[in-house]
Amino acid sequence: xxxxxxxxxxxxxxxxxxxxxxxxxxxxxxxxxxxxxxxxxxxxxxxxxxxxxxxxxxxxxxxxxxxxxxxxxxxxxxxxxxxxxxxxxxxxxxxxxxxxxxxxxxxxxxxxxxxxxxxxxxxxxxxxxxxxxxxxxxxxxxxxx
Length: 145
Known about the structure:
- It is a single chain.
- The protein has two domains: 33 residues, no CATH class; 109 residues, Rossmann fold (3-Layer(aba) Sandwich), CATH 3.40.50.
- By secondary structure, it is mainly α.
- It is globular and about 45 Å long.
- Strands 1-2-3 form a three-stranded parallel beta sheet.
């Protein structure tokens, strides 16, 4: 990001601390904070699923990592339009189970986060991505394990 001219600020012990801090800074400065589950981010992340379905149009199962859920949502939306019978399976690190526990409970549940797996390292579940993953009108069937 620095090579592209961005100012990069590091803060916090993990993704969630950094996210909370960045949201506070954005609010203080009147800036727009793009969350990990922002619809524009979900659409952008979903472009990798477009490439997958372009290369493998008959794909039956797509296994995706779930941190905040934006990737799983993007993949589910793309699968739902490109190959609705395909299954999208979201997986989460055992050491960061917040989204999977929320999925199983049917409500948001925070959990400890002890993984270094970037992209999976969240201890806070997100309501909007849980909603997208559960809505059969929006996304191809997604299961979380």
